Fold this protein.
Amino acid sequence: MNTMGTVADEKQGISWDDWQERNLLQEMHGVALRATLTKCASIAVLLLALVFWGYAADYQAVLGFVVCAGAVRVAFLAAAARQYEWVTLFAGMAVLYNPVFPLFALMGHWAFIFVIASITAFALHCSC
């Protein structure tokens, strides 16, 4: 009976290996899409902070939470891909942007440059 089912499935072009490969490709596509959305959300929040720089300090906790979560997610993805230099960069970024104990205030020229550098890091990792 199994041979009949296998023969019927192969006539339709569906086999267990094809099904597994298709599901693996769909899963990889989903992971890549969620990673891209995470990076884009972090970039969008950082760009909003630049545009409304005068008010950015008032919303530092929200900005810190979004960017910290994005940096942690990207660090885990980079670790899975064995890109340890990116892991170090994004883990450090997560520590700096943590909303519980912020290590810098979103005021002044240095913070502005740091936000631009963070946008650049997220954007450059998109190409990897």
